[in-house]
Amino acid sequence: MKTAATFLLVPILAWAFPDTAHAYQISPCYRVLTYSDAAPHQQTVRHVGRLCALVMSQQQRTAVHEHMTAAAIREYRASPMAVQAAPEWKWQYMVEPTWTINARQHRSFAIIFGTWWNDDPLMLTLGQGADFSTGGYKVWSAFQPQRATYAGAQRNCGVDADIHLARASHLGKLQHLHFMTTDATTDDAARSQRVEQTVQSALTWMAFAYQVATGELRPDQALTAEKQAELSLPSIALNHCVRPENVKIRTLFARQGQPTEERNRRTPDIALGSMLHILQDSFSPAHACRVSRELNGKGQALLHDVANYALQDKDAHAALDQYPPWFLDYLQTGRHLYGNDPVTVGAWLIAAVDRQLPWPEVEAHLRATIFAPAPASASGTPEQCMGRS
Q: What is the 3-state secondary structure (H, E, C) of 176-245?
């Protein structure tokens, strides 16, 4: 007899062992973050979440993006996650109340949903219940080869492979959403160009997301075909199965099925989370080569090169996308080994959104910190790239 759990388990089993790896790991099954025994952990919510977790690989049981985003939020809110302050804690971000700084309201769960968006831009896993299985299965299916169409944002909606948003994010022209390059060259002579192209593509997306996060672009404004082309997006109408004239900013960032008011409310925070995802991925040794240098008496991790996911060994990529040593040290001590890490810069970016700093000032700060390049003379062999030795 097939129980409800059986119907949930079958798609989850397929999803649990994907052929493709995400960036730093995300885990929609785990929506409670904890810290104990000098290490970050995560817990499930509800029985379906526990079922989902049972069949996930160990690598998929690490909520790295969620913990990094939580760290940036807490640092911005002047509550660093350090052992001396709290040796053990538990954060249920799904039920945390709205918080306000500088007259700007945020909901932590929506920011974390935004950090998932880059991996799941059709937002198939943002709900609960069936999203833990069928939504996850659709995400997994999107990376299976030799299919003409893949699941869109709505039920019974197929999207052609060459314009599928999630495939473009991981395998195509939107790899900059994970701070990766589409450049197929690997020669050292072109590395500076690869880095700059990736930085510029990432900043083009972030400039748009920043406008959404600050409210300069409203959730109910039209997302025009011209703007989609500027952002290198495939047709959002076809991906979300709506008429082109009905595509709004919220169509991109807040899944359908929620009341319009709720979608409008979530949209700025989800756009903010998407920017944090890029900052975090830029520090992943699976995505970029960074070299450690001293600058003004502080450690800095400078960009030396970027990777193309299509050219990588997928198992090796996944193995590098775990909790990095600098972050584990931060959680334990509260110190920043690198002054331009994504916790420090992420907290600064949230503050910039709340203060509504002009974008040119924000871009200049990002280029001077987290996107700062290594000197042209710097060596970046695999043994010297942070996190790869």
A: HHHCCCCCCCCCHHHHHHHHHHHHHHHHHHHHHHHHHHHCCCCCCCECCHHHHHHCCCCCHHHHHCCCHH
The secondary element (H helix, E strand) that includes residue 33 is strand 30-36
CB 65 within 8 Å of CB 58: no
* 4 Cβ neighbours under 8 A, 6+ residues apart: none
Which residue from 16, 1, 15, 68 is spatially nearest to 282, judged by alpha carbons? 68
DSSP classification of residue 300:
E
pLDDT tens digits, 257-307: 899 999 999 999 999 999 999 999 999 998 999 999 887 778 999 999 998
Q: What CA–CA distance (Å, rounded) separates 167 from 165? A: 5
- What is the per-residue DSSP string for 126-173? SSSGGGGTHHHHHHHHTT-SS-SEEE-SSTT-EEEGGG-HHHHHHHST
Residue, of 15 and 75, whose pLDDT is higher: 75
Rounded Cα–Cα distance for residues 326 and 328 (Å)? 6
CA distances from 149 to 17, 125, 165, 167, 381 (A): 21, 19, 12, 11, 40
- Confidence grade of residue 314 (pLDDT, cut at 50, 70, 90): low
Q: What is the CA radius of gyration of the chain?
A: 20
CB 387 within 8 A of CB 320: yes
Instruction: Give the model's confidence band at 60: pLDDT under 50 very low, under 70 low, under 90 confident, else very high.
Output: low
Q: Which residues pair with 89 in a beta bridge?
A: 35
User: Residue with structure tokens 């695999």?
Assistant: 382
The total of other beta-carbon atoms located within 10 Å of residue 264's CB is 18
* pLDDT score at 28: 66
100/10 Cα distance (integer angstroms): 42
CA–CA separation, 14 and 333 (whole Å): 39
pLDDT tens per residue across span 200-243? 999 999 999 999 999 999 999 999 999 999 999 999 999 999 99
